[in-house]
């Protein structure tokens, strides 16, 4: 028989209800914390993109973020948490094309019309290529192989074209972790013949290289030991594959040195994107210059050289990205960057490859993720033809669950870009 509730039971009932409310509130808080933790990587992406202005002109952005030419206002607190994780992005339809004759790592590539000239690079850590292969976008074939000069570097080259002549600047000579050279060359793509060019003042490893307003600009990269960042910036007047001056001119130093960055001219502005400080070095006393890992700092910085020959900062990439010197193309007023490497994994300390395609819309100064690659990959060699984005070569990941580098490739892939 149920005992009737008396007046003395009322406080107990109200206390039970209060305890229940507190319990529900606590459960809600726990669920909220769990949700925030699980969505951390996507929130990192949202932060990185939303902090960039959605629709401002270059002039408006520079005025708002003016550093008076000395970069004292450059952001110091980069948001690095979870940068090793893949960022959200659409899945793309990829088509595999005819593979390159040889696999390449840290090679170089230049597109002239429907032809992609692919240079040098490692075959293995102990073997480097010393020739050029040509890919024809029109008929999906490789051909026209020819040799490079014996004195020319084999990897980590600086390279740019005026549409006929390809300027090849310094780079690493030999396999493993040998040092860089100061030698430079010019290739006439109509005759596939080489000429010597004015040597750089000092050897450089993977310098940022670009033609801008009639001058060949070379900057940054690493110094002779492969590890110490170089800040020096030189230029020389050129025309039709010839130097119009006898010596390189010293220009304003780049704000941050280091190799493996994209160097792009868009809308008559010179941009340097991403890169890293530090790299592998030769093991002391090794007769073969065996590579030895050193600390590397990958960054997302974007710098622009203005009309006054002063460096300005632009919105950073969605996450730090390196090994992208030949991984970019310009499409419809945007810079498209394919793959690369980001900060090492915070626990395993392994190198982490990038599996996204980034877009920088220059008119609005806005970064976004265009889509996902078929796998994470660094040092891609990229071209664009008749609406299709192509990439070849590089070093891919170990699989969907392991973003560290493994196999060097010669694969060619393409996808239709729509934006």
TrEMBL record:
Entry-linked InterPro entries: Kelch-typ_b-propeller, Kelch_repeat-containing
One Pfam family named in its UniProt record: Kelch_KLHDC2_KLHL20_DRC7
Q: Which domain of life is it from?
A: Eukaryota
State the UniProt keywords alphabetically: Membrane, Transmembrane, Transmembrane helix
Q: Which residues cross the membrane?
A: 12-36
Protein name listed in UniProt: Kelch repeat-containing protein
């Amino acid at each position: 028989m149920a005992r009737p509730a008396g007046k003395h039971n009322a406080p107990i009932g109200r206390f039970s209800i209060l305890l229940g409310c507190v319990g529900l509130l606590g459960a809600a808080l726990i669920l909220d914390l769990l949700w925030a933790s699980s969505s951390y990587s996507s929130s990192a992406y949202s932060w990185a993109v939303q902090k960039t202005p959605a629709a401002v002109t270059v002039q408006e952005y520079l005025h708002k973020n003016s550093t008076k030419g000395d970069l004292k206002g450059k952001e110091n607190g980069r948001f690095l948490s979870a940068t090793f994780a893949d960022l959200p992005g659409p899945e793309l339809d990829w088509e595999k094309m005819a593979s390159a004759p040889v696999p390449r790592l840290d090679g170089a590539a230049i597109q002239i019309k429907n032809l992609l000239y692919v240079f040098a690079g490692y075959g293995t850590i102990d073997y480097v290529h010393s020739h050029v292969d040509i890919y024809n976008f029109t008929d999906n074939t490789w051909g026209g192989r020819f040799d490079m000069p014996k004195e020319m570097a084999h990897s980590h080259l600086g390279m740019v074209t005026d549409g006929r002549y390809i300027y090849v600047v310094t780079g690493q000579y030999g396999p493993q972790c040998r040092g860089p050279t100061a030698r430079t060359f010019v290739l006439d793509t109509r005759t596939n013949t080489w000429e010597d060019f004015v040597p750089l003042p000092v050897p450089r490893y993977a310098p940022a290289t670009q033609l801008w307003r009639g001058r060949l600009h070379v900057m940054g990269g690493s110094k002779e030991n492969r590890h110490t960042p170089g800040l020096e910036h030189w230029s020389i007047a050129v025309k039709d594959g010839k130097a119009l001056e006898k010596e390189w001119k010293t220009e304003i130093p780049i704000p941050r040195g280091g190799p493996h960055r994209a160097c792009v001219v868009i809308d008559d502005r010179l941009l340097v994107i991403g890169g890293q400080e530090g790299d592998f070095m030769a093991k002391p006393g090794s007769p073969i210059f065996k590579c030895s890992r050193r600390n590397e700092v990958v960054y997302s910085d974007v710098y622009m050289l203005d009309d006054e020959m002063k460096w300005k900062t632009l919105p950073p990439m969605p996450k730090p990205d390196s090994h992208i010197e030949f991984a970019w193309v310009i499409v419809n007023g945007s810079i498209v960057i394919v793959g690369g490497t980001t900060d090492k994994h915070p626990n395993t300390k392994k190198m982490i490859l990038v599996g996204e395609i980034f877009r920088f819309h220059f008119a609005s100064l806005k970064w976004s993720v265009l889509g996902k690659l078929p796998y994470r990959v660094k040092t891609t060699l990229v071209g664009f033809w008749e609406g299709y984005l192509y990439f070849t070569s590089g070093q891919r990941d170990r699989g969907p669950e392991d973003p560290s580098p493994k196999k060097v490739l010669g694969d060619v892939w393409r996808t239709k870009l729509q934006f």
